[in-house]
Amino acid sequence: MKINNLPYRSLWVTADNLAVEIIDQTQLPHFFTTVKLHSMRDAERAIRDMQVRGAPLIGVTAAYGVALSMRHHASDAALTATCDMLLKARPTAVNLRWAVERMRAILSPLAAEQRAEAAWLEAGQMADEDVAVNAAIGQHGLPLIQAAYQRTGKPVNILTHCNAGWLATVDWGTALAPIYAAYDAGIPLHVWVDETRPRNQGASLTAWELAQHGIPHTLIVDNTGGHLMQHGWVDLAIVGCDRATARGDVCNKIGTYLKALAAFDNHVPFYVALPTSTIDWTLQDGVAEIPIEQRAENEVTHITGQTDEGEICTVRITPAGCRAANYSFDVTPARLVTGLITEKGMVAANEVGMAKLLT
Ligand code: MRU
To answer: Mind listing the domains of the chain with CATH numbers?
Structure first.
């Protein structure tokens, strides 16, 4: 995708081939800065501190973390320690485990001296695959937006939650990929962007990347979606996913479930876009089984923004000493999901639909 009309991915290998460069997403939308990752610890820290975030991008960054590590220490013990450390960086997005285990499976049978090169190639392959997979999700989701436009003849209003755009992947995004595809195909559309408290990835990241692409959008506070749906101002909702189960339950950023309930009550189609690497085939019941990340209280009690003078400032919005709970994700049961948009096509969110993705 483009930033100020220059093509970018959300991560890339530096020209000297010694490091991986990322966009520091904690600085957006106020500052565009990049950071070089030279070691596995750099990659682990970037994931944990959310300089990179979004399920697919976490996975690819972890793969490069393994590759960077193998350049320094490539013994069996080092491989195990590297994988164990990266796996702990964040708990919910299963793409992290998927990527680390894929690296482990490729590298384990090799001799230590072969691992560095093989790991670098595999991580690069995963980055390229991610771009292709998300482009395919875009093409599979495009007909939904086309159909909505043909039905009404008016700009299509799409609601999304959090950031499941190109910043959350290597390129294109998941939930935003069909939106980019539809916009580029000339379909008039408008996106309702949930701000996504407490870290505000909708306000800071989705609004930023949609603006870079020229896509009309309006920021709303998280509680607005139901009201918009009651009035017929949402044609469809498309969200991303951090972990889906074998029966089609989907875990995504906190608040997604409430949007799905409102959509169900108002007969608004609710789609979830995800690569198949986001499916955890070992789980069935998402509510009972998916680990939900809990983050620091101060993400809820405080808020950070830019003053009109350009200064970045953090302020407390609660009484001093107020306790806060910060659950970062929730689970939407399959019965509330109209369809899953994957790189293999659209499937129903149930065991039969999911089984089609195994072939
Ligand atoms: O906590 P984050 O910013 O990593 O959460 C991201 C999301 O919840 C996204 O919706 C999800 O990862 C889908 S990414 C294409």
So the answer is: 2-129 (1.20.120.420), 140-285+331-356 (3.40.50.10470), 294-327 (no CATH)
